[in-house]
Amino acid sequence: MAYLPERGVFKDTIEALDQNEAAAAAASLGYRLLEIAPVREAPGLETLFPSLFKASTGDLVRFFHQVASMMASGGNLMRAIEMAESESKNRVMRRALGEMRAHLADGESLSQVMRRHPGMFPELYVSIVEAGESTGRLGPSLEQLADMLEQDHEAKQRAMKTMMYPMTIIGMSFMTLAVLMVVAVPPLLKVFEEMGAGQPAAMTFTVNLIGFVKENLFAILGAGAAAAVGLALLRRLPGAAGVIDGVSARLPLLGPLTIAGDMARFSRTIGMLLEAGVPLSDALPMAIGGCGNVRVRQALRAGEESLLSGRGLAQELRRHRVLPSLFLELVSMGEDGNQMARMMNDAAATYQKEREDRLGALLGALEPASTVVVGAIVAFIAFSMFVPIYSGLDALR
Fold first, then answer.
1. Residues 81-127 pLDDT 10s
2. Theoretical Cys-Cys bridge with 355: which of 150, 194, 260, 314, CB 3.0 to 4.6 Å?
3. Does 67 fall in a domain?
4. Pick from 323, 321, 346: which is nearest to 333 by CA?
5. pLDDT tens digit string along 141-175?
6. How many CB atoms within 10 Å of residue 350?
7. Which residue range forms the structural domain that includes residue 15?
8. How many domains are contained in the chain?
9. CA nearest 182: which of 383, 393, 381?
10. Contact by Cβ (8 Å): 314, 301
């Protein structure tokens, strides 16, 4: 609420980051402020469904690259944030960058303003930036962080593309089978009735299967959803997640793939944190949190406790069979030669390559498997539909 001689008392709305900025904007317009309060708006979709509107990995990679490039070319941090805010197409990120810019203007550091947005910047990112600020290497730290995010994003994209082809083939085959069973089978049944021929066993099985699915569709979907929820709840029970992940780590193709992925991610994070100036004791908990397999996390946490107690890291890690021997040797060499950062970077490159190779091997196994599945579906269609047709024709002769 404000006052102007020619308008009297009136209400107006001013877009600003906070009340101080709004008051300054009102004063510049000649308003005499009587009352100022934030406008209460209904929550937007990004507030109701934050997971659908959060900043993507690509948004964060572009942001860190932009800020690092601006600082490397002599620009200041405030200008870099402002540029990233103006170029961002994500509303949630644009709003967060605007708030960050306001707090930077109040004298806070980049790591402090990032810590205000934990949903966008996990503690790992904040620690890397904080270490870069304390050592005077903020630009290189941001560039390293962007590279790490980019590598993780590209690895996930490659994995998705690798799995897309066989899954698409199998999915389309089942869809084709379902359409044929629903569209083609009922007319064929009428044909057999008109022929006066008995209903073949394969056709009987198909009809009974379709009828069962139709009558119990919601029960089947509910059972599948309940099984998924039950498995998720089971993983939360003490010790259950460790047993499940321990079994999955021993699977012939999937187990080594997940372990290699965890080793690559952990080693890359440790190497980058150490190069940024973060002590190993502080870097370990942040890197361990990025591992997906519970058994791997348990082994690494045991190593962390051993390090904090003064016994070293490699000796304790050797007690856990889930960790690869090459990784253990590299940790031991890094610890003995005081070259942990270099050894972890070497381990990251090695296990990233191994992960890609194993992913290719998994694809090589899935392609013939999908071919066999498709062949089985085609054979089932031929047996249940075309063979009875020929049998019925023979019965008419």
1. 888 888 888 888 888 888 888 888 888 888 899 888 888 888 778 88
2. 260
3. no
4. 346
5. 888 888 888 887 887 787 777 777 777 877 887 78
6. 18
7. 2-33
8. 2
9. 381
10. no
